[in-house]
Amino acid sequence: MSALPPSRFSVLSSPSPDLLSPTNSSTRFSLPSGPAIATATAGTPKPLSRPNIYDRPLNKIRTTEVSASAFAFLFSEIVQYMQKRVSGINDLERRLNTLGYRIGTRVLELMAWRAESASKAPKRDIRFLPVLMSIHTNVWKAVFGKPADAIEKSVQNEDEYMIIDNDPVVTRSISVPRDMSQLSCSSFTAGIVEAVLDGLGFPARVTAHNTPVDDFPLRNTILIKLEKSVLEREELFK
């Protein structure tokens, strides 16, 4: 009987039990420990954080001023945004009026809160002329940083009053094209006035009109047309 041919492949010998030991394998292939991370100590100064705008007291008005250039830039962007989405001048003025009305409701709420916090017995005006004077002075200062220039009463119609602003803040940086010369961006201001009047119980229709003169080319008139119920109530106080 012939002998078996030599094997072409060598058979690996069985590994040593020591090499398969979990303890030994973990020791051989263990990763080096990373460097320790230094933690912040109690004495490390923390970066200063600016106070949240919602944490500021509402009754302090010195820190509520806004940059005029920032306001002009924002308002011009609003006008351009709306101009691309309207069908005409009347539609654009209506949208500006609606935006101003929303702001006017918040202005009235803020002013009422400040008046109540500053006085132990705040009073509410129930006559129209004191309210109109308050809008001419207090509302204009709260929104635009200065009072309006004049108040006029219509000679022909007893239900019409006018607030004159010789240099409106909202139109200082607005350049109106010639084909839109009838546009009055102060419709935004008219919306604020209308919201304040409605909130105080003097419903009216408020519109804005360009009335330029030689000395004041940006002069604007806010026309207030009171509802009949307001006139009837005024008659009762006479």
TrEMBL record:
From the UniProt entry, list the residue stretches annotated as the region Disordered: 1-54
Keywords carried by this UniProt record: Endoplasmic reticulum, ER-Golgi transport, Golgi apparatus, Transport
Pfam families for this protein = TRAPP (PF04051)
InterPro entries for the chain: NO_sig/Golgi_transp_ligand-bd (IPR024096), TRAPP-I_su5 (IPR016696), TRAPP_component (IPR007194)
Low complexity composition-biased segments: 10-47
GO BP annotation list: endoplasmic reticulum to Golgi vesicle-mediated transport
Statement: the UniProt record of this protein carries the keyword Metal-binding:
no
CDD domains, per database record: TRAPPC5_Trs31
The subcellular location is: Endoplasmic reticulum; Golgi apparatus, cis-Golgi network
Q: Name one GO cellular component term.
A: TRAPPI protein complex
Q: Which family does it belong to?
A: Belongs to the TRAPP small subunits family. BET3 subfamily.
How does this polypeptide assemble, per the annotation?
Part of the multisubunit TRAPP (transport protein particle) complex.
Q: What is this protein called?
A: Trafficking protein particle complex subunit
The organism is: Russula ochroleuca
